[in-house]
Amino acid sequence: MPLAVIAVIVFLLKILDIPPVGNWNWIWVLTPxxxxxxxxxxxxxxxxxxxxxxxxxMAADMKEAEETKRKNRGF
Length: 75
What we know:
With 75 residues, the chain is mainly alpha-helical. The protein is built from three helices and no strands. The protein has one domain (2-73). Helix content is 81%, strand content 0%.
């Protein structure tokens, strides 16, 4: 996520033409966005972080559903 913040800040500095970023070539300004796409679409699935996060969310949802069922039964 820090890379996304850096990418947006650098992009805004280029758009607003604030030195020294205003003088940079567009390829250097857009490089962080390319790295983010690489990270989210290639590296994260390759190392399995997306599946781990999905499993954690599914476990939390199942726990919440069980608690709701328990409350509705009156226990």
